[in-house]
């Protein structure tokens, strides 16, 4: 056996702890972080321990902070939407602001401990954390008015997700998505997300005068915040410190807002405290908690199409996060990339457990954690543990939640931490005329319908050679070329027609 083969065998047999070298032995910090990614050997559904299997680095604080800001924002929107929809649907239900805050706290306590700290931190570091299903937020009002029950919806999503993960359906769909289709999907999501946050920031700035009865306008505050943060983001990209964008740009936004007189809009209203952690309080009667009681058969029927839609939308969501890791991690780091099927298992269990104890979140892969983590060249476990602990601290203290959902912080954090990186990653994937054709049609279809249906349609067309690489179908089996993409498209289309997600066509239920 040659020396090279023996060395490779020794490396393969050696543990992470044996292969670890201190940062002082590397020329740059980036080289050290890349080496850490290459030598890690996470145990799948086993016990991973700090020191033996991974280490904490101060870079892990970046995705932890970003994920905490992102999830606080998302949970706030989700719980407010549930409260408004259910109060309108059911005459006896009266869910106010205090309800939304308490449910947010439930979601940030128990699931953070079980599925951030324990699951993705110690048990399976290849499973990304279960975060929030952002595209489903605008549908929550419709879900409530359709007669769905949050607990029934959660059970159905969890069961469908577990079945799909058991069949390895998520990873197969990811593998069947070409770089052109994936690039187009990322470009669309990045562009639309950035546009939405910029618009929201300008609307907030323009409304300050009327909201606080001022004698002067503060409409220019949004422009100044965006302008300075664009320059700061460009500088961080130039010096290859883009992973610092979320904390630095968020702090910069706060400072600018206060200097320009917009600080009066930041109000601390969420006092320290703990929510009721008894599931019976939330689901046991029609007088406490959600005031809905336990779900019945009709609730499950009303929830069914929304559950199918939520799980159908998981694959493109997971795809974007996995690709973002691949683009930012060096070669030879396959062992630390998120496993799509394991992530689907984690999200499914988190969906059922989180809602059973009183939550109301609709779960998906945690993008506001994964994207900054990939930029910072950090694996999942250490940041997941820090994120879970941060969520618990924020939920108990209360006041940091008010800062996280303040418009300048929220918009800038999502812009520099999620949507701009998504846009950049999508553009990186469109490298030739073949991939640009698939990407262009995916973007066009997303504008016509929505990104999930666009992904399913362009995957079907691309895998059959009707767009993109004409040689691609020759490398695929009949099932991969026709059966699976067709089923994905039909299921997405049927679910969207049922709930009224196709523009111009009323809901069929």
TrEMBL record:
InterPro entries, per database record: DUF3360 (IPR021794)
Source species of the chain: Parashewanella curva
A Pfam family it matches: DUF3360
Keywords recorded for this protein, A-Z: Membrane, Transmembrane, Transmembrane helix
Transmembrane intervals: 61-85, 106-123, 143-167, 179-198, 218-236, 243-264, 300-319, 380-399, 405-427, 439-461, 481-502
Keyword Metal-binding applies: no
Key word Transmembrane helix present: yes
Protein name, entry field: DUF3360 family protein
């Amino acid at each position: 056996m040659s020396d090279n083969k023996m060395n490779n065998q020794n490396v393969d047999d050696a543990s992470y702890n044996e292969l670890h070298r201190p940062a002082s032995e590397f020329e740059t910090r980036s080289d050290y972080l890349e080496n850490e990614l290459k030598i890690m050997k996470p145990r799948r559904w086993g016990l991973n321990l700090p020191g033996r299997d991974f280490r904490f680095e101060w870079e892990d604080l970046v995705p932890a902070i970003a994920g905490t800001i992102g999830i606080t924002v998302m949970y706030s929107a989700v719980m407010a939407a549930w409260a408004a929809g259910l109060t309108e649907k059911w005459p006896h239900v009266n869910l106010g602001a205090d309800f939304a805050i308490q449910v947010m706290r439930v979601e940030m306590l128990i699931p953070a401990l079980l599925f951030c700290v324990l699951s993705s931190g110690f048990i399976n570091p290849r499973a990304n954390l279960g975060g929030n299903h952002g595209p489903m937020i605008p549908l929550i009002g419709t879900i409530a008015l359709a007669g769905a029950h949050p607990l029934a919806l959660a059970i159905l999503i969890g069961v469908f997700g577990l079945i799909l993960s058991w069949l390895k359906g998520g990873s197969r769909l990811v593998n069947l998505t070409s770089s052109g289709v994936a690039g187009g999907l990322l470009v669309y999501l990045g562009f639309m997300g950035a546009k939405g946050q910029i618009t929201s920031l300008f609307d907030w700035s323009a409304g300050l005068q009327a909201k606080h009865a001022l004698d002067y306008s503060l409409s220019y505050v949004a422009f100044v915040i965006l302008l300075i943060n664009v320059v700061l983001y460009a500088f961080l990209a130039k010096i290859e410190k883009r992973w610092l964008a979320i904390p630095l740009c968020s702090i910069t936004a706060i400072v600018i807002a206060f200097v320009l007189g917009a600080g009066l809009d930041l109000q601390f209203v969420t006092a320290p405290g703990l929510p009721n952690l008894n599931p019976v309080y939330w689901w046991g009667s029609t007088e406490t908690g959600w005031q809905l009681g336990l779900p019945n058969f009709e609730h499950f029927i009303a929830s069914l199409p929304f559950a199918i839609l939520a799980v159908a939308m998981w694959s493109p969501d997971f795809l974007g996060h996995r690709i973002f890791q691949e683009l930012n991690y060096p070669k030879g780091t396959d062992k630390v990339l998120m496993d799509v099927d394991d992530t689907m298992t984690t999200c499914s269990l988190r969906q059922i457990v989180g809602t059973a104890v009183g939550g109301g979140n609709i779960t998906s892969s945690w993008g506001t954690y994964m994207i900054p983590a990939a930029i910072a060249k950090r694996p999942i476990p250490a940041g997941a543990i820090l994120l879970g602990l941060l969520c618990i601290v924020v939920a108990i203290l209360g006041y940091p939640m008010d800062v996280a959902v303040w418009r300048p912080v929220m918009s800038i954090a999502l812009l520099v931490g999620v949507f701009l990186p998504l846009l950049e990653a999508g553009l990186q994937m469109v490298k030739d005329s073949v991939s640009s054709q698939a990407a262009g049609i995916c973007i066009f279809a997303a504008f016509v319908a929505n990104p999930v249906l666009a992904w399913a349609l362009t995957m079907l067309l691309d895998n059959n050679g009707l767009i993109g690489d004409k040689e691609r179908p020759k490398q695929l089996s009949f099932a991969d070329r026709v059966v699976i993409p067709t089923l994905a498209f039909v299921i997405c289309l049927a679910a969207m027609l049922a709930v009224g997600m196709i523009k111009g066509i009323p809901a069929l239920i």
